[in-house]
Structures are given as C-alpha cells and as structure tokens.
Here is the input.
Amino acid sequence: MSKKNKKKAKPSKPHQLRKAAPAKRSKKLLAGKPVAATEEMVANRVAADEQLGDDQVLQILVDCVPRAGGSSDEIQMTNALKDYGFLAKDQVLVLNTFVTGNKDFGVQRYGFKLSDDSLAFAAPATVMNDYAKAIQSKAKKSV
Here is the structure.
C-alpha cells in the first residue's frame, strides 16, 4: 500500500459527557394515538400509591395466617377465617396483631400502618375477602 492511499488517523479527542436528557412524560395510548396524562390519571396513580395493592394484601394474608397459628393452605378469598383454623375470637385477635403490628409480614412491610382496632370486627365466620377489603381500605400510608 502506498502512503498516498493510507487514511490518516484523526487524533483522538476525549469524550465529552453529555447531560442527561430530561425525562419525558409518559404518554398513554388512546385509540392508538398518544395522549398526555390527564389530571384524573395522575390523581388515580397517586391514590393507588396511597393504598395497598391486591397482591400486597394477599401476600400479607399468605404470610400472617400460618404465623398466627392458622393453616398454611392456599388462601381462598371465599373461605372464612374458621376454615384456616381461627375457631375462636382470641385466635382472630392474634391474626389481627400479626397483620397490624408485624414489621416483617404485616402492613408495615409495605410502609403502611393500621390501627389495632381496625380489624376488631373480624370473627371466625368472617369471609377472607371481607377481611382483605378491610385491610386494604383501612391501611394508611406511613409518613
């Protein structure tokens, strides 16, 4: 190869750091067209952050029921607490204590708090779905 055909190498320049581009607002698709998030969408998202999710409530039940002395059977939302071994009001109170006060398995695990008397309605005949709804609706985000 002749010197004439050789390409000259450009001197290397240090890479300049680029500033990160500002985060783009997420846009929802409505009928295939992007739409800016509305105030209602933002309010719903904030409200969702202020309430335990269905999956979180289910995980609390899965963790707390056996630890409070109940059965480790799969949680069926149509079953009553008595179906999991909570045959007396005192046993239900133990479950309530786990749900409200246990930092590792109760509502505190997800950054929520629940007053001790918020589940006082529960009895052995309480359906698991009603118990779960009470946890979800009464739990408040910890500050």
Observations:
- The chain has a mean pLDDT of 79.
